[in-house]
Amino acid sequence: MDALEAITTRRVQRAFDSKPVEADKLRKIVDAGRHAMSARNLQPWQFIVVQDRERLKEIGALCSTGKFITDAPSAVVILKDTGNARWADVDCAQAVQNMANAGWALGLGTCWVGNFDAAKIGELLGVPQGWAIFTILPFGYSDAKNPPQSRPLKARKEQVFHERYGASDK
Fold it and tell me: 25 burial class (0-12, 13-18, 19+ CB within 10 angstroms)?
């Protein structure tokens, strides 16, 4: 799958098949995150790959909106450098987007998890001082009984202008 196809066909996935994710695919996903743009090339991220079923269940129990991590065969925890207050969130978000698209291109789905007990998960994973959990991306194959759904997009004419706000697409 090429990059544009991955970007335009990707879906949010919250239900996962129990099939394990191959180590090579996880390596490619993390490398896609490592290749994200970052301000001044500071690369204010680190990644923790989690595949242990019990640890995934513990993490899922500490997520208020991402309990589906419990059923995922793997997850990547994205850490941000707290000393980089100006750009770390933007840079880490770009890494997350790269990883989500790479996963989709490799036949895997994910969903950005936003609400979790960062302190308890950080303690569980041994996150050192100076680093904070930015988000968690569970990765896995689609559950055939609950496949990812398409997402509606706003009309192009509502979002894209030329030369000046409000000027229509030519």
Answer: middle
Packing angle of the helix pair 118-125, 53-61 (nearest 10 deg): 160
How far apart, in whole angstroms, are the C-alpha atoms of residue 135 and residue 133? 6
CA 44, 46, 52 angle in degrees (round to 5)?
160
Neighbours of 46 (CB within 10 A): 16
For 76-135, the pLDDT digits (tens) are 999 999 999 999 999 999 999 999 999 999 999 999 999 999 999 999 999 999 999 999
59 close to 148: Cβ distance less than 8 angstroms = no
- As a whole number of angstroms, the distance between CA 76 and CA 138 comes to 6
